[in-house]
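Quarterly update from the structural biology core.
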Amino acid sequence: QVQLVESGGGLVQAGGSLRLSCAASGRTFSRYDVGWFRQAPEKLREFVATIGWDGTSRNYTDSVKGRFTISRDNAKNTVYLQMNSLRPEDTAVYCCAAKNSQGGYDCWGSGTLVTVSS
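Predicted structure, tokenized:
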């Protein structure tokens, strides 16, 4: 079982940048695909980005393509989400999750809040 803890959120002006971190415990972290998800107030959780276990496969939701970059450092058991050109609509609680045996992602941590002011 891999446990993940998110950090790096905060308040930033539109156009600014933040880097989120997803730190994992467990020696098998490098075997898992990992995803970032977000949930804005009164909205459903949505997919943001995923990265394959070895970092060679990356996918993004259309609204963040060209602005966000997902990466990982398996030696540090950490996945990152670099967010540039932030927009007010990016405001949400961001969480990370490892892909489970059914192919889904479950965010078990409390997430990290990103607030983008206009």
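The chain is about 0% helix and 50% strand.
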